[in-house]
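Risk register update: the risk of archive-format incompatibility is retired. Evidence:
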Amino acid sequence: AAAGGAGAAAALWSEVNRCGQNGDFARALKSVNKILQISKDDVTALQCKVVCLIQNGNFKEALSVINTHTKVLTSDVIAFEKAYCEYRLNRIENALKTIQSASQQTDKLKELYGQVLYRLERYDDCLAAYRDLIRNSQDEYEEERKTNLSAVVAAQSTWEKVMPEDLGLREATYELCYNSACALIGQGKLNEAMKKLQKAEELCRQSLSEDSDVTEEDIEAELAIIHGQMAYIMQLQGRTEDALQLYNQIIKLKPTDVGLLAVIANNIITINKDQNVFDSKKKVKLTNAEGVEHKLSKKQLQAIEFNKALLAMYTNQADQCRKLSASLQSQSPEHLLPVLIQAAQLCREKQHAKAVGLLQDFADQHPANTAEIKLTMAQLKIAQGSVTKACMILRSIEELQHKPGMVSALVTMYSHEEDIDSAIEVFTQAIQWYQQFQASQTRGANPKSPVHLSLIREAANFKLKHGRKKEAISDLEELWKQNPKDVHTLAQLISAYSLVDPEKAKVLSKHLPSSDTMSLKVDVDALENSHGATYVRKKAGKLTGDNQQKEQGQGDVKKKKKKKKGKLPKNYDPKVTPDPERWLPMRERSYYRGRKKGKKKDQVGKGTQGSTTTGSSELDASKTASSPPTSPRPGSAATVSATSNVIPPRHQKPAGAPATKKKQQQKKKKGAKGGW
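Archived output:
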């Protein structure tokens, strides 16, 4: 019996080997199960069963077999298979622990380790792992490792804004070209990235067209991800119409990559914004597909959730918007955008004070975001019409007080409120900040930076514009001191002194260049006849003898304007003499005879409502020779003869006494207020 069992096991092992070589793992699994019935703790048979299950895609069952036979299948024996099952089941943290706990790090484990690190977005460790693999391995998978290495560099450039280093990889495949383009997008080099993607598309078509079994649909499906990145670049460049067209073309192909579909749908939603919300509602369903969370990075998923919250706000789904933004805030408490979305929703509900309070609470808890929060609060105050309060909030942002943009905004707002003193104070504080900064940088020297000088000039112009010439003098003197050859500044300074200290103005006027040095070679005639001249000299024409005498005799007489010919009516006939009384009103013309009365007298109903002059016997339908049925038969139509003498009721002349009716109407005209 033992010999028979051994012979059967040998035959089964031969079957397993043959099926494995042929790739028929389902049949091999049946043979392995028969072997395990003979010897349930056979380590090799258990390993083969796990491999067959993995090849058939049954990762859960394979992991169950491993966990059930932990005594036999130790971590040293089955570490790779276990980690791979956990990786495919998206249990990435467990897979990492399994790999790290293995006593021996084989090449297979190192390859899987790099994939796990990439999924965990630990790009620095992942880059080091792939470099080590490329350095210490030589086989037919070297091209795939280089592709993975370039993908890590592209992810660093895109998500961590790390300047990618030149790896010296030869971009011979479309995958390498695509990853290189992604790295360039992360650096903001959009034109170069577009060229790389075009090259990747060309290489992809060439490589796939060599296979006779690949159809054009297969090629387009493979190119979908490249076209998606092209559309993204167009969107970043502001070519939204082209980007939207390309996005929709990709969606029509119905690619199987749920991650690609989710990204494209999200980008379309960002193009639509608060317009075309019904299309956005359809597209947002693509972002909820199963498995999307395992295909995209954390930042991509976060951006999709942000856009869902904004879409809920734009579609007036207040509760949904609050729910999504609160969930985002709990996931990322330090992130500013969820709070801004909540504040925007409150503003849509006219709860501005509550929105400002929400922003203030967040600013107190997260001082790093104070500037952004206060800018938003100032915008809300402006929306409420509280410009002065908005200015106070802006001036409390210390790190932005001296920025030219902030100074310009504050001065404009104070000018709108006619608070000139506060506007000048803003200029003064900014100028003092630059003076202190320059002194600290130059160790006591006093050179002026271009921004500093620009602020001084703007302050001087502002003061001159609002009549503060005394205050403008010090600024103008500082500017002239920095550049004594600046004639414009000197002229402004003389103008300011002329009202304050005329003697000083005379002294300074001596520094103005002489008229000889300022004379320019200008062709006056050409200047006056130029396109931009407000006055153009007319060229004098030659006058004949008669015309010249007329010009001399009528030099003081004004020229008479020619009268325009009046427009004639469309039905004007020159042969017919026009009516001489046509300018008079119709009632005043000699041939007017007044309105013709009684024209429709016969048609006006007289007498009581419904009464007629004709006898009732003439209208009795039962007394006519041929009376039609009261109701037509089913399927037949009641016909009325065209020559019938019977008059319908509304066309009959009503009977009544006209004289009596007329008297009644006269009585109503005299005193009655009532009517129908």
